[in-house]
Structure formats: structure tokens, C-alpha cells
Amino acid sequence: MSHKSNNKPIEAIGRTNLLAIAEDITQRTKDITEYLQANGYPQPTLSADSVAHPETVEYVVLYGKLKSSLEDLKYLVEGPKRHFRELCCHGYELAAIQVALEFNFFEIVPLEGQISIEDLAEKAGVDIDRTQRIVRLLVTEFIFQEPTLGYIAHSPSSYLLHVDEEIRSTLHYTLDEMLKAASATADNVKASPLKYNSALTPFTTRHGIPIFNFYEKDTRRSIRFAKAMAGWSKLNLNINALKEAFPWNELKGTVVDVGGGSGKVSITLAQTFPDLKFIVQDSVDMHVAGQSLLTDETRDRVSFMQHSFFNPQPVGDAAAFILRACALNWSDSDVVTMFRSLVPGLERSEPTTPLLINDLVLPPQGTLTRDFERGLRQIDLIMLVGFGGKLRTQSEFAVLLKEADERYEIRNFYPEGLMGLLEVYLRR
Ligand SMILES: C[S@@+](CC[C@H](N)C(=O)[O-])C[C@H]1O[C@@H](n2cnc3c(N)ncnc32)[C@H](O)[C@@H]1O
């Protein structure tokens, strides 16, 4: 069966016809090859410093279609036993990455060339036997390579963790405090099987303390969490909707970035919009983490303020309020308090001042590809495990805004990948 249309869904060619799926894979691989050629990208290689893959929407669509077909074929040919054999061992692979991160394997393996397993073990302070067992499992997952027997070099994935501290922090916080919390999920559900108590998450079951209190008490992990959030943005939470959909050029004055973490988003916006100033608020004192990210062109225009978004907003006369990737961390009643606490700030600003809620917004069920849905559902579970939060649809956001204050109105919605931007105003 020949398959010529680029957009024909796999369902249309029969999800269980192995050769039809394989032909679809060939076609989609050709589409990607042509896209790379036409846009001046080299073909991907396994060399450690291979050039980054395109981040464009077109590439994401092409890659998503190929991935669906690859997954269909893999599942069909391996069958349920092999499927579970692989799945049930993922935890051990994560354990291996956990050790590699904790003992700095990614930084110790040099950018170029290779290091003997003995030297890696010595520099990491781990015995040779366990170093070798851990690193060799990771090699099978494209993390590190062993080009010469007994010598370890970077793969593209381990190279990324060597050069990018923020993405490394994302992996590290995920495989340290979050993986430990995830392992307590069934115990947490057992404690309250019929009703989810958002104040008692699996994180609290495992660590004995809610996540943000945990970071308030642990400065080292809180700095890593701030870096992890910046890394997470690179992996998921693109700021395209926030940066490109909204007409920032029309604003003058100071933008308040509520729950802004270390200020990564404000700093990026400040670089693009040189007339705007930013105040980054967070309940954690982000002065130290934030200062280290400032550049000469942004230093005078981005400042940091410790403030909880559950308390009335102290800043007025704002050009805009940003609430980015915050609502998803909290339960409905907390989000209502968060939205209501912004009202004093909006009331003391011009009626044209927007509240820009930039968050993961769930599209209606049944409209997503499997890959997209899995990405969103994974984040929904991160919220369940760590934060007592959840992902919401646009209409769920509208209900919570109205509950916080009748005058809230969503005037625009811009979807963008997994993220969406709600442009909200307080009617006067
Ligand atoms: C997922 S991060 C998002 C950070 C940033 N807005 C971004 O998009 O990268 C959530 C942020 O909310 C902050 N946060 C948690 N509780 C808070 C509170 N009560 N008041 C203000 N910020 C809070 C956390 O410290 C963290 O920086």
C-alpha cells in the first residue's frame, strides 16, 4: 500500500498493518530530511556536539508524526510482555541517572575526548565497579558513549547535561526530590483513596513537608529548583505565546512578574523590550539566584521582591502583571485566592492593565495526538505528586477567575504548543 499524503494520520492507513506503518515512517523521515535540507540544518549525528535540532513549530509537527508511527511499530512488534519488561525497568535507569548526577559524572567526563572508567570513578569518589555498571547502563540509553573499551565519552545527551547547568538541574531535581516523592504516590492514595487532599501530596508523604516549605528550608535545593525551572522552560514551557502573541511594544512602565522564580522570563522579555522595567516577585528570596542571571543590559531594569501571591498585591501602577506557570501548581481554592490577591494591584493600575496568565492549558479531550497528550498528562501527574495542583482547560480558568472576582474577563486566548496565554482584564 503506498502512502503519499504527508498529513494522512496513521489511523487512516491501518494502525496494525506493519508494512503500512513502516512505509509511513519512510515517508515521514523523508519529510524531515527535506525540511532540514530546505532550512539549512545539517542531518543529525551521534557526535557529542551535534548542532541543536530545530525548535520550530513545523519541525515539532513533523517529528511528532514520525514519533507516533515509530511508537506504533515498536509496540506492535514487541508485544505486551516485552513492553512491560522494558517499562518496569525504567525506574532502575532513573536510579542510574540519579547517581550520575549526584556524583557529577556529566561534568567530569570531558567535553572533548574520553576518560577512563578508573579516572571517572576516582574523580567522582565512587568505586570502579559501581561506576562501570551505572555508566554502561546509561550508554544503552544514548547517555554517554564507550568509543574505546573502558573509556567514556559524551553522547549528544550527556554533552547537553555537561554544558547546560539549567537542564542538568531539571534532571537533578526530578531524579532527587521528585522521584523520591513519586515513589510514595500509591501510599498517598491509600491514605485518602476517595478524595485528593491537595494539602497532603505524595511529596509531603515522602519528605514530611510541603514542597515550597521544603525549599524555604533548603537553600541549596531551592537554588537548584530555580535553575531547574529555567531548564524546564527550555524543555517545555516555551515563552513564545507570552513573548510573541502579546503586543509588549504598546506597554510603558513596570511589569510585575508574580511567582517569577529567578526572573528568567522577565530577563528574556527585558532583553527584547528595552523600554520596560520588571519586578520579579517570589515567595522564595531570589535575589542571589536572580542576580546571577542578569546581564549588563538588564541589570538596571529587573529587580527582585520577596512576596507571596497569596497576600494582597503591594505593587500598583503596573503596566502588566504576569502569572506564569504558577496556577498549575495549586488547587482550585488556592488559585482563587491567588487571582483574588492580584485585584488590589489591578485596581491601583490603569483599567487597560492586563493580567497575563501564561500556563499549560489543556485542550478539549480527544483533540490531541498521543505524544502531545502524554506530555501534558505527565505534567498533570507532576502536579499531583509534588504540588497538589493540576492542569486546567480555558473554561476551568474562566470559572476560577469569576469566583475570585466577578469583574475578571478573559479577552484573548493564544494557544502555543503545550502553553497558552490568557489575556485577562478587571472590568471597571
Ligand atoms: C513553576 S515555577 C514558575 C516560575 C516562573 N514564573 C517561570 O515561568 O519560570 C513556580 C514559582 O512559584 C513560586 N511560588 C511558590 N509559592 C509562592 C507564593 N506563595 N508566592 C509567590 N511565589 C510562589 C515558586 O518559588 C516558583 O518560583
At a glance:
With 428 residues, the chain is α/β, with parallel strands linked by helices. The protein has helices spanning 18-38, 57-87, 90-102, 105-108, 117-124, 128-139, 156-163, 165-182, 185-191, 202-207, 211-217, 219-235, 240-245, 264-272, 287-291, 332-341, 343-347, 370-387, 394-404; strands at residues 115-116, 145-148, 151-153, 253-258, 276-282, 302-306, 320-324, 355-362, 392-393, 408-416, 419-426.
Structure description:
With 428 residues, the protein is α/β, with parallel strands linked by helices. It has three domains: 10-87; 90-163, Orthogonal Bundle (Arc Repressor Mutant, subunit A); 230-426, Rossmann fold. The protein contains 19 helices and eleven strands. The protein has helices at 18-38, 57-87, 90-102, 105-108, 117-124, 128-139, 156-163, 165-182, 185-191, 202-207, 211-217, 219-235, 240-245, 264-272, 287-291, 332-341, 343-347, 370-387, 394-404, and strands at residues 115-116, 145-148, 151-153, 253-258, 276-282, 302-306, 320-324, 355-362, 392-393, 408-416, 419-426. The strands form two sheets. Strands 4, 5, 6, 7, 8, 9, 10 and 11 form an eight-stranded mixed β-sheet that branches. A three-stranded antiparallel β-sheet has the order 1-3-2. The chain is globular, with a radius of gyration of 23 Å. S-adenosylmethionine (SAM) binds at residues 212, 229, 233, 259-261, 264-265, 282-284, 308-310, 324-326, 329.
